[in-house]
């Protein structure tokens, strides 16, 4: 093997290494199952997660320190992470679909969220959510899926999905 061949091989390994550790530039799909959250069918996380680990997956975040939580914002991805100040780990993620009037990212999520095999998107209504998740008692905003808890939030009239919050079920 020539020196030139060795350099080409080394460069190829570097490229593969960078692509395996590449941060997500946009999210088109978030899958929530009984114990994990998967971004774009490639990056899988579990909660709680350290801010540094999540930053490795999603990229740099804007941080607002508060009491009792600090909030990490991935504005271009429309994802927020809540970190109780006493834990130093992100315990829940919020996917922002539309304006909420309080904490939110600077852009809104346009992709799909798959919850336990069922797909929802920004056009989901309360009544459709109850139908999809077979809620005989009507709309209930909280789902328990294995070790995960999923909370959905709609605006008052129920026609606009505001956000989906995912956390570890206690």
Describe the model.
The protein is of the alpha+beta class and about 170 residues long. It has one domain (about 25-170). Helices cover about 20% and strands about 35% of the residues. The chain has helices spanning about 5-20, 50-60, 125-130; strands at about 30, 35-40, 45, 60-65, 70-75, 80-85, 90-95, 110-115, 120, 140-145, 150-155, 160-170. The strands form two sheets. The protein has a seven-stranded antiparallel beta sheet, with no helix packed on it. It has a five-stranded mixed beta sheet with strand order 3-2-1-8-9, with no helix packed on it. Strand 5 and strand 6 form a beta hairpin. It is globular. Residues about 5-20 have low confidence and may be disordered.
Instruction: Name the helix and strand elements from N-terminus to C-terminus, one letter apiece.
Output: HEEEHEEEEEEHEEE
Q: Write out the strand line-up for the largest beta sheet, numbering strands in chain order.
A: 4-5-6-7-12-11-10
Number of domains: 1
Q: Determine the fraction of residues in helical runs and give it as a percent range.
A: 10-25%
Total number of beta strands: 12
Query: How many angstroms does the end-to-end distance come to?
Result: 57 Å
Radius of gyration from CA coordinates: 19 Å
Largest sheet: 7 strands, antiparallel
The poorly predicted ranges are: 5-20
Question: What is the SS-derived class?
Answer: alpha+beta
In percent terms, what proportion of residues is strand?
A: 25-35%
Tally of DSSP helical segments: 3
**Overall shape:** globular
User: Could you tell me the mean pLDDT?
Assistant: 86
């Amino acid at each position: 093997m020539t020196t030139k061949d060795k350099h080409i091989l080394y460069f190829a390994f570097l490229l593969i290494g960078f692509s395996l550790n590449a941060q997500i530039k946009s999210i088109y799909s978030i899958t929530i199952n009984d114990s994990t959250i998967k971004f774009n069918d490639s990056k899988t996380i579990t909660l709680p997660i350290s801010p540094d680990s999540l930053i490795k997956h999603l990229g740099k975040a804007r941080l607002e320190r508060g009491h009792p939580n600090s909030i990490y914002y991935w504005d271009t991805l429309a994802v927020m992470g809540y970190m109780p100040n006493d834990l130093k780990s992100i315990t829940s993620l919020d996917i922002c679909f539309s304006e909420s009037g309080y904490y939110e990212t600077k852009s809104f999520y346009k992709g799909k969220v798959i919850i336990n095999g069922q797909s929802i998107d920004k056009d989901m209504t309360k009544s459709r959510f109850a139908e999809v998740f077979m809620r005989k008692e009507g709309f209930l905003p909280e789902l328990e899926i294995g070790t995960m808890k999923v909370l959905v939030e709609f605006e008052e009239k129920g026609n606009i999905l505001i956000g989906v919050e995912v956390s570890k079920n206690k």
